[in-house]
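User: My advisor, Dr. K., asked me to get a structural model of this assembly before our group meeting. I'm new to this, so sorry if the format is off. These are the inputs:
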Amino acid sequence: MIIKIERSGGIAGISRSTEIDSSELPSDLVTKVKKIIQNRKLATVSSKVTPRGAADHYAYKISINDGESQIIIECNQYNLQDDFKSLIKYIEKHSKRDKISKNP
Amino acid sequence: MFFIINGKIIDRHNYSEIHANQFCFIIPEYVNKKIVEKGSKKQKEHAWKNLILTEQLRGRRLVTGLMSSMFSVSNKLDRTIFDTQNMEDLPGNIVRREGGKAKGDKTVTEAYAYSGATYNFFKDIFDRNSIDTRGMKLDSTVHYGEDYNNAFWNGTQMVYGDGDGDIFQRFTKSIDVIGHELAHGVTQYEAALEYEGQAGALNESFSDVFGSLVKQHSLKQKADKADWLIGNGLFTKKVKGIALRSMKEPGTAYNDSTIGKDPQPGHMKNYVNTTSDNGGVHINSGIPNRAFYLTAIELGGYAWEKAGRIWYITLTERLRERSNFQKAANSTYDVATDLYGNKSSEQIAVKKAWSSVGIKIKSKKEK
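Assistant: The format is fine. Below is the predicted structure of the whole assembly, which you can bring to the meeting.
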């Protein structure tokens, strides 16, 4: 299972893309990822609500691919669920395949 | 489709995850407004919360007026600096109040001094009473998060990370970054430009414009002496770059093996269509940024005197939530015409500046 985190926005506007194979994750995080997949019926879930007037927050695109299907979750720092927070923190810290996303 | 459940905004996809017993009644908006006006203190607070949530969902401006009637107007600068001590629970502990002495934490000192400089800039130059025109308190949180490489405006306050020390230093270091964040508050109470696509890039650009003007004003710099950079000095020495953005030459602020190259265009022909960064709000802002820079340079003198005034009136009186680049360009042209007259050098400078970034003015005032 490949988990990809794409972060964009922030005052610097510098995008960052990180990828990790679930075999590199600690078991509690693997459990979380499996839970995320099981609870999602839709292939793409988007939630972009922010407080009124808010600016310079991070936007996230999380893709989970288990070989058969791919789930994409789009959200931002205001509606990032707790399950994702610890996952993102771990992946951004430990990913060996950290790369700057090529500018679109 | 969205729901408000126990004060939280729940959208369609996770609505099904909420148990039925957590559901509470959604009070109609007109009832909340009545409570805000006539209820007890506690009722008012609760109703107010609900109205803000409704406001967030509908993007309407009505509530701002109601808030004004709830709270008294202040005419004084009132800063509070909070510290989350590398956690993320806002706002954090109070470490300095208005008039309090500096205690040696330079991040606190910078957040305090530069938010004061921003307040004074808007007051002295545009006769504006704080962010909301009614003396809104200026709250800032420092030491937010762990190795946090960002600063943001959450709709009510400023928040600053310390940077990871590898790419970024502390975000309070740049006065124009603090001016940038506070200007997002001004935009929120004025044009309320939505944070997506061209309107979002305009929102970003106005923050860069006023952030840079706050810096120039604090240094008493004329347009040709200013650096026209946003976040100069935020990068560590390891990074090949001078700043986050250049208003003068968008796309040239950094070019580094770790963080990549500055993606900003300075002309419509290089406009970036993307879904990331809310549709490239920090990318395409380079186009209106450069139009402002070119206007200011053409007019000479202090940039806040003419170009700044034209842009300020455009933001506060002419633009709306979904205004695009063309609308902003036309509006600055109309404002320049109203302020300085037809065929004035100011009007001509505005037209020329937008033309240089690939936007042709379409205005009834154009003769």
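One thing worth pointing out at the meeting: Confidence is low (pLDDT under 50) at residues 97-104 of chain A.

User: Perfect, thanks a lot.
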